[in-house]
Amino acid sequence: MILLRWFITTLAIFALPFFVQGITVSSILTAVLVAACLVFLNMVVKPIVTLLTLPLNIMTLGLFSIIVNGAFFWFVAKIIQGFTVANFTAAIIGALVISIINWIISHFIHD
C-alpha cells in the first residue's frame, strides 16, 4: 500500500506543473525523488516541527501547518535539481494540492 501511495504521489507531483504556475518538474525520475523526500520529511521531520510549532498552530487554528507544508515543499525544491518552485506562494499552493490528493488517497487506500 505504501508503494501505491508513493506512486500516486509521484504522478501528482509530475502533473503539478500543469495546474500550478511557477512549479516545474524536469522528469519522472525527479518526481520520484521529490515524492521520496516529501514522504521522508513528513514521516520524520514533520512530527517534530509540529510539536515545536504547536502554540502557533493553536493560535491560527491549524492554518500554520499549511505554511509548514509549503516550507517543506520549498526545501525539497532547493535540494533536488530538476524540481523548481518559483516563489513561496507556488510552494504553498503545490503543497496544498499534494495534501488534498494524499487526503483523497487515504480515503480509498487503508494501510
Helix and strand arrangement:
Layout: H1 2-19, E1 23-25, H2 28-52, H3 54-59, H4 64-79, E2 83-85, H5 88-108
Antiparallel strand pairs: 1-2
Helix pairs in contact: 1-2, 1-5, 2-4, 4-5
Number of strands: 2
SS content category: mainly alpha
Q: Could you tell me the mean pLDDT?
A: 92
Quaternary structure annotation: single chain
Instruction: Work out the helicity level.
Output: over 70%
Total individual domains: 1
What best-fitting shape do the alpha-carbon axes yield? globular
Rg calc: 14 Å
Ranges with pLDDT <50 over ≥5 residues?
none
Total helical elements: 5
- Largest sheet data: 2 strands, antiparallel
Strand percentage lies at: 5-15%
Written overview of the protein:
- The protein has one domain (2-108).
- It has a two-stranded antiparallel ribbon.
- It has helices at residues 2-19, 28-52, 54-59, 64-79, 88-108, and strands at residues 23-25, 83-85.
- With 111 residues, the chain is mainly alpha-helical.
- It starts with a helix and ends with a helix.
- It has five helices and two strands.
